[in-house]
Description:
Blueprint: H1 8-34, E1 42-49, E2 52-59, E3 62-63, E4 97-100, H2 104-107, E5 110-112, E6 121-123, E7 126-128, E8 136-142, E9 145-152, E10 167-171, E11 175-179, E12 214-221, E13 224-225, E14 231-233, E15 236-241, E16 244-251, E17 274-278, E18 286-294
Antiparallel strand pairs: 1-2, 2-3, 4-18, 5-8, 6-7, 7-18, 8-17, 9-12, 9-18, 10-11, 10-17, 12-15, 13-14, 15-16
Amino acid sequence: MFFRRLxxxxxxxxxxxxxxxxxxxxxxxxxxxxGESREAKVKKWTVIENDKKVLYMTVxxxxxxxxxxxxxPQPQVITPGTSGTARKAGxxxxxxxxxxxxxxxxxxxxxxTKGNRSKWKLVDGAMESVKKAGMIQSKQKFGSxxxxxxWACPVNVxxxxxxxxxxGVFLMGTYEVQVxxxxxxxxxxxxxxxxxxxRGKPLVNACRKPGQWQSYDIIFHRPTFDKNGKVDRRAxxxxxxxxxxxxxxxxxxxxxxxxxxxxISEYVPHADxxxxxxxxxxxxxxxxxxxxxxxxx
Length: 297
């Protein structure tokens, strides 16, 4: 067989192509290891019944339309909660962990970041942030979860941009969904109401008028880290603002901490379970009807 000696330029192109192929392969391998997507295991076969071929399928080892509860248990029956209104907070589903329901007793579920009693106020069945009081956090710690929280910015409009009705909901005390009065109030898109702060702008602006109660429904899957502290599965967010989808399984590429006017934090290894935090940003923002449903990783 005849082999032609490659010129220097041709040899360099060949090496570059090899490197590119390796990068592409590594990309797909990493995506597989990260656990960010999973394909169901499907098996198909045919059975002759009454002289006809009948198709059978299993999904993850369970027969399609399996009715035997020993093989395919029925879902748990729960009582759904109610939606909040302008005058009345909603209620949690029966299987949720209620963190705040407007009562003084549930207010005890929260502390400042040092574990002491918070200086936030209980006002008309809501928790209200107090300037310079610092963040408030749940005593209980969570990882992946469904979080519901209702909030309202001050009815009397003061300030503009980031200085108007500013607060935040922090999953694991770390990853922020921004709270802001974004009704006729322009700011940078990745810092408006519903933004994954500094990372992802909401698909739409679904903000209500100042003083009106609003809601976030957040489906959060926590990041995981390997033994060397490197992210091996990134966090994801699905968020509904006032019932409107604003993040659709958004994959978080790093942290959401402020690092200057045009920079944001990166991932830092942390525990598997951490408190939920609400931010004091100097504005008297109110929160009510806060509940969590824990999710499997």
